[in-house]
Amino acid sequence: MRRRKSLPLEKGFCAVTSDTPRPPPRRRLFGAWGRRELQGLFWQVLVVGIALAVIGFLWSNTVTNLSARRITTGFAFLGREAGMPIADSLLAYNPRDTYLWAFVVGVGNTLRVAVIGIVLATILGTLIGISRLSANWLLSRLAAVYVETLRDIPLLLQLLFWYVLMQALPAARAAWRPVEGMFLSNRGLILPAIPLGPPQLWVLGTAVFGLAVVYLIRRWLIVQQMRDGKPRPVWPFAVSFILALPVLVSVLLRVSWTIEWPELRGFNFVGGLTLAPEYFALLIALVTYTSAFIAEIVRSGIQSLPRGQWDAANALGLRRSFMLRQIILPQALRVIVPPMTSQYLNLTKNSSLAVAIGYQDVVSIANTTLNQTGQAIEAIALIMAVFLTISLSISFFMNWYNARIALVER
Amino acid sequence: MTAIADMPEVPRAARRPQTGNPALRWLRANLFSSIPNGILTVVLLAVLAKGIFSFVQWGIANAVWLTPANDSSACRAVRGLGACWAIIPEKYRFILFGTYPFDEQWRPALSVLLFIALFYLSTRRALWRRELVLLWVGALALISMLMWGGVLGLSFVSQDRWGGLPVTLILATFGLAFGFPLGILVALGRRSKLPAIRSLSVLYVELIRGVPLVSLLFMASVMFPLFMPSGFNIDKLLRAQIAIILFAGAYLAEVIRGGLQAVPRGQYEAADALGLSYWRKNRLIVLPQAIRHVIPPLVNTFIAFFKDTSLVLIIGIFDLLTTAKTAIIDPAWQQFSVEVYIFVAAIYFMFCFAMSRYSRGLEAASGR
Fold first, then answer.
1. DSSP string spanning A284-306?
2. What residues 151-170 of chain A have any CB closer than 8 A to a CB of chain B?
3. Per-residue pLDDT reduced to its tens digit, B77-93
4. Distance between alpha carbon A407 and the CA centroid of its chain, in Å?
5. Residue B180 in contact with residue A358, Cβ under 8 Å?
6. Distance (Å) from the alpha carbon of A94 to chain B's nearest alpha carbon
7. Domain containing B2: what range?
8. B51 and B103 within one domain
9. Helices in chain B by DSSP H: which ranges?
10. Which of the residues in chain B have pLDDT under 50?
11. With an 8 Å Cβ cutoff, is A347 touching chain B?
12. What is the ipTM of this complex?
């Protein structure tokens, strides 16, 4: 065995410490646990204990109250006949259906307003946000006034305002016709529609398939370009797969695409696509209100880019559209996407204001159910479950998108 | 779009010769810098002129400003052509103060002024000291005394007769005053090293933020009696206030957490090195810095609460929006709701606009 060489330092070091005797280690109450750990444990036990006590108190009260009112807890009531009318719904419904189906119809209505609202608010908000940065003084001022006004008035007030305006529109007979085939009256907005049966849906399915193929082709083309540096246009593939292929299928299978024009018969309209006044008012209110917030996000996202990015792109002599698409937007998006996610969540949650004007979204239907059956806890739990699911899906999707566009750092 | 065309603003003066009338130069630079820009300006001007013209015609030229008490015939005559502003002098007492006893309405009016003074004083940087808390406690106590009465010879007014603007201000301000300490505790809890406290805070914040305020308010109005021992019940306004406090707490906690994250690590370590306890460390070192960081987003959150208090309409509490909606139930005036909504929107706008101006000023000051 080789003896380790003792370092000269070690000796001196020992000598110094041995001069001043170390104080005996502090006695610890519970083995290795120090004061800090004990304090932590104490606080945790205290807080959890209080939380449990409060929940237990509320729970026992609730159980007593429910049994006093002869309400049986549980979700069995969902199987019973709902008997409530739903005037305007995406999914087929009649009052003899169950509560469960009424809820599903409500979720459908919420999603109908939220999804279309998100798309329209994003488009409008982006346009206004860009307008605020316009070199045209008038346009940028107008955009600023729009943002400032809509942001500073409660959404519910705006919603009531739009709804009152809808109701003040002329009756169906005297409906406004801004464009041929489009009617605006107190029955809502009526648009021409194309009836979609299975054959038409198949053709649309082909277009979606074409879109997926073009996406893959585009990725492959970019890989090719990375290899030899030659740009390859993607538009011939896009035209052939997204447009030509569905048209071909449609011609071959003789799918008819007749437009159904709405017409006035008696006191109401027949045919076409009807947006009920409640839905239309809710959609307008949500879109205009949220677009004001989105406009600010887009504006600050674009402004957050250092000036050098614009200068560099200009110095390279890039065309303006190319510069925006390839240099500015990809960087601005990184700043824009996270706050945009919370705006989408806000829009979805705000769609619950529908209850104030009688559009039957999930909150409104849950509220009616609650009044009819007294199943308060279950109804609120269902609302929470629906909104938590929607919120989590939106955050999940946006986080995925955010991770995709995030800066890849070495 | 011609938008973005000149981002960032290139100093135009350098490009164009500095000749001619300065006003013309300004016009040329800002409105007619290129042909598409010029066309855009003309189109916008045309649309704007038409909009302003029809609004002036409806809102001023054809409008009815005053009518004899409770007589809307003059308004009916111009319906569709002109606005009926006469409904405002007719109904403003009800819209602003609800069913508060008519002769005592100076009390809610004074409370509104006190609220405004409180907000104004809170924006003064020189007053950002510990004493501000005392000021808030004192002002809120004074306002409660004025509204309830029952002391100093003031007659007692129960809170189910309160209504209008004071209720909106009470819901928003008390929501902030109680939600703020709650938010601080939850934000600290969410950053705590103790797993049980951290997960409770996360659960609270995510549950509240995940659902719409409407469903929380429903819960407060419908489920609260179920939660309490039988026979025990508290007033509807207080229940809505509790819901708003819980809601505010969750959102404020997230804002404050952002501030806590912005405090450099060295500050925590320095406080630990001084041997400060957890609470003293946070109270003296961390929180003052964290909160200063997030004052602009805090003001924005407060604007959002102020607007969100209008949701209590759905559970039938008489805030400003509900009194406005109730005022137009009167059959004689039913058709003139647009005018009332514009009036109320102007009140909300003034409060929110003042706050957002203030928050913008703060941001600009901190950016310098």
1. HHHHHHHHHHHHHHHHHHHHTS-
2. 151-158, 160-161, 164-165, 168
3. 777 777 788 777 777 88
4. 23
5. no
6. 25
7. 1-56
8. no
9. 22-30, 35-56, 73-77, 87-97, 106-123, 131-148, 165-190, 195-210, 213-218, 224-227, 236-262, 265-273, 278-280, 287-293, 295-308, 320-327, 337-367
10. 1-6, 8-13, 368
11. no
12. 0.86
* Contact between residue A276 and residue A87 where contact means Cβ atoms under 8 Å apart: yes
Cα separation, B226 vs A247, in Å, equals: 61
Distance CA A405, CA A399 (A): 10
Asked if B308 has any chain A CB less than 8 Å from its own CB, the reply is: yes
A-facing residues of B in 124-183 (CB < 8 A) are none
Same domain, yes or no, for B144 and B278? yes
Rounded to 5°, angle at Cα A393 from A391 and A397 = 120
The vertex-B182 CA angle with B181 and B187, nearest 5°, equals 100
Put simply, the answer to whether B211 touches A160 (Cβ < 8 Å) is: no
B1, B2, B4, B16: best to mutate for the A interface, most A CBs within 10 A = B4
Q: Do B215 and A380 touch (CB under 8 A)?
A: yes
CA–CA gap between residue B320 and residue B169 (Å, rounded): 9
Number of folded domains that form chain B: 2
Whether B109 and B33 map to the same domain: the answer is no
Looking at beta carbons, which residues of chain B come within 8 Å of A40? Answer: 193-194
Q: Are residues B195 and B287 in the same domain?
A: yes
Shared domain for B41 and B139, answered yes or no, is: no
Instruction: Please count the other Cβ atoms lying within 10 Å of the Cβ belonging to residue B105.
Output: 17
Q: Which residues pair with A304 in a beta bridge?
A: none
CA distances from B30 to A126, A237, B24, B366 (A): 22, 42, 10, 29
- Low-confidence residues in chain A, pLDDT < 50: 1, 5-17
* Residue B321 and residue B344 in contact, taking contact as beta carbons nearer than 8 Å: yes
Query: Is there a single domain that holds both residue B123 and residue B33?
Result: no
pLDDT of residue A11: 45
pLDDT value of position A282:
93
Chain B residues with CB under 8 Å of A156 CB are: 310-311, 313, 321
**CA B7, CA A324: separation in Å to the nearest integer?**
11
Q: In whole angstroms, give the CA distance from residue B34 to residue B30.
A: 10
> Where do we find the tokens 């709902």?
A82
Distance from C-alpha of A62 to C-alpha of A68, rounded to nearest angstrom: 10
- Is A55's Cβ below 8 Å from some Cβ in B? no
CATH number of domain containing B133: 1.10.3720.10
